[in-house]
Amino acid sequence: xxxxxxxxxxxxxxxxxxxxxxxxxxxxxxxxxxxxxxxxxxxxxxxxxxxxxxxxxxxxxxxxxxxxxxxxxxxxxxxxxxxxxxxxxxxxxxxxxxxxxxxxxxxxxxxxxxxxxxxxxxxxxxxxxxxxxxxxxxxxxxxxxxxxxxxxxxxxxxxxxxxxxxxxxxxxxxxxxxxxxxxxxxxxxxxxxxxxxxxxxxxxxxxxxxxxxxxxxxxxxxxxxxxxxxxxxxxxxxxxxxxxxxxxxxxxxxxxxxxxxxxxxxxxxxxxxxxxxxxxxxxxxxxxxxxxxxxxxxxxxxxxxxxxxxxxxxxxxxxxxxxxxxxxxxxxxxxxxxxxxxxxxxxxxxxxxxxxxxxxxxxxxxxxxxxxxxxxxxxxxxxxxxxxxxxxxxxxxxxxxxxxxxxxxxxxxxxxxxxxxxx
Length: 423
What we know:
CATH superfamily of the largest domain: Spore Coat Polysaccharide Biosynthesis Protein SpsA, Chain A
Number of helices: 12
Structural class: alpha/beta
Number of domains: 2
Subunit structure: Homotetramer.
Enzyme class: transferase
Oligomer: single chain
CATH architecture of the largest domain: Alpha-Beta Complex
Protein name: Glucose-1-phosphate adenylyltransferase
Keywords: ATP-binding, Carbohydrate metabolism, Glycogen biosynthesis, Glycogen metabolism, Nucleotide-binding, Nucleotidyltransferase, Transferase
Strand content: 25-35%
Largest sheet: 9 strands, mixed
Distance between the termini: 58 Å
CATH class of the largest domain: Alpha Beta
Binding site for alpha-D-glucose 1-phosphate: 108, 173, 188-189, 206
Radius of gyration: 23 Å
Shape: globular
């Protein structure tokens, strides 16, 4: 594991470029007012904090974030939580909104275009290596190890890859590799994914993480921009071209995944659906969760709000502020309510006689007296009215709220208002 306080030369010669412009439509109303990377996770963090923290902990001190869709919430978070990098220490942190730099009617056309349109800014800093990152996944990874492999193999591009069951790889870009993990072919969302040579039931799926020498990538981006019909995308255009005309190597996530003594698996999650988002948050309530947020050797940096401690009040039968197997963030007050396997984000209030079970409650929500919430995601700032019951009657849930096929119910303030206006 790299020591983020004493970074190695490779990390110091690298820039992390985070692609954070995606909407994340499968998260439904959670991304109506914010981009997917800005969605809250784990009580006090945002999804993007994981990629940014990985870069910082790996020793990378130059970071750029490309934003586009509904960027205000994300930009505000970055300004508040990530403004400690200093130019006088040869550090930098840039937020790069789509600004029609190429043409007045042209936003970022694809992931590669989001880098191409900011080439002059990147070249001004002069990093030797670029680590391209997706800003919307939950994982802990030491990018220094991937950088070292890139240099040692002499690759034109190194692609971060996950080992997944072969027939689950149909939703990914899949690497067909030889016995040394050199990429022989790249197939986007194949119906019959190629297997890993020594594991016939397993495939290598792209994580959307790429390492390039900056000079080489700039040449490829200029070539791609001049190519008619290109979609300006790394997975669809840039990587397949390099696989066919250069040298591309796969980097297996298991080699650089950061695990504390309490983590037994290489944890990576795409929380791109309401069901996956709910499950990843609820999994944190396990006695020993697969993702250790308490690892002091690899902290997840974020905007640290100044808040008072969480508080539990009342102590009588049926009206006791309590939480079992739950995460309760700062500035929360549980007043005579009961939490079970629940994640309560910053500044929320739970009133008397209410019951929350397997609930993911985002910041600054109020749960009214006698409310019962089961298997729900409650968006930021929602005022749940007294006595509302969600998660027990599928027909009621589907009528007024967003209920998924797996039985998770998403609750927003607009939905609550429509319900209340009907009463």
